[in-house]
Amino acid sequence: MNLFLQSALPKSSTFMMLATMSVTQMLVCLLAVLVMLFALILPVQPASMAVASKFKITTSQATWGSACAVVGSRLFMFGGSLGDTGSLTDTTTTCGIYSIDINRTITTGAASDLQMHGLLDSEDPDYGFRNQIAFVRLNGQVFLIGGRYNNSVGEALKGDFTVEVAYLFDATTGESKRPDSKAGIPYHSSIQASAAIYDKSAPFIYMFGGYKDKNLTVENTLTVIQGSDGRVISSNLDTSEMDGRGLASLGRFNASHQVISGGTLNGRKEGDVLDDQWLFSYQPFLFTRLPHSMANARYLHQSVGYKNRYLIHVGGASPAKQYELVEYVDLKSSQVKIGTIDNPSMGPKSLASGCMHMEGDVIIYMGGFEPTENDVLAAFVNLLLVQANDSDGTLKFRWVTGTGVPTAATPSNGTVAKMTPTPEPEPSNAVAVGERAGL
């Protein structure tokens, strides 16, 4: 007799009951007992799994610290810290994936065709990720590496765990998996300057700096990763000319050069945040410091090359008393200029740690937080039109969020237009100068 049955029935009545039961009745009772046993034996699924499986975002929310990539006509966002627009950045982290249609968003002035694509990590769905780096492969798959994670999507990202495993997202099927690739990326290394796009002339992923340990000892090493297979091909390139830092902006300027700018030694206070700008090429390997520093020292900012002449910086956390949302470098005149926004009241005063993509003349800025407004979460999307004055070479900016532009100039549409290399400027002796978001 099963011990469970013995404890459930009085001993004196056990034999009599069995004697009067038919075979069918006995089978029904046995089945019921088995169901009860399985319910006791099988473990209860953790609550965090249920939370993660219900990942959802609306256009009244935003993420910050997301990785992002363009595949076809869609801008994909991966992970980040999620919350309602206007709420504080002490939010929950996620490994969810979502996307918008780029062209329709630009023409309508609002996020269009918002889609959700499940979770980046189905094996550990309670993990949340922040500040990963994305790379788009020839087949449209998005490779992600580095960043930070926490071990509960229902908790704010407090830990300093570095993500060693890589992820691969197929934009066609919506499936994610873990390839065999692993890389030890320093904690708080450089962030994506702008959204990843497929570019056959740029086969590598670059990460600069970060911290060696929990004492926040800065590194000044450049890590180079083969984008096609996630293999680390160099992690000790000589960058002794450049100070170590965390959370600098690193990304593509043109077909031959990457750009690194800003970063922090430790926090947001004056003297810790850097303002220098560097162009570098990998083959041949060469670092060149731009003649002028940024107008604002900043980190967690986004940067993009424009018309093979301008380097535009948007947002970032900064100790500057006079915060400038947009500034740009004119490499032809070798001047740093503040970006004048014609209608500043139609957009945020500050932005940081969002995702930026430039399509034609329009900057799409997804999420982020507003560092001059107590780090509250920014709007789901902001759109900024860039206009060049051919007569004097200056740039003008205008918010087109809510209005859009009639016809978007979209030569790239998920690919990179061919550019000619920019002549390398001479290095200078300029000296770099110098939370709520936990950075």
TrEMBL record:
Region (Disordered): 410-439
Database matches in Gene3D superfamilies: Kelch-type beta propeller
Lineage top rank: taxon: Eukaryota
The protein's name in its UniProt record: Uncharacterized protein
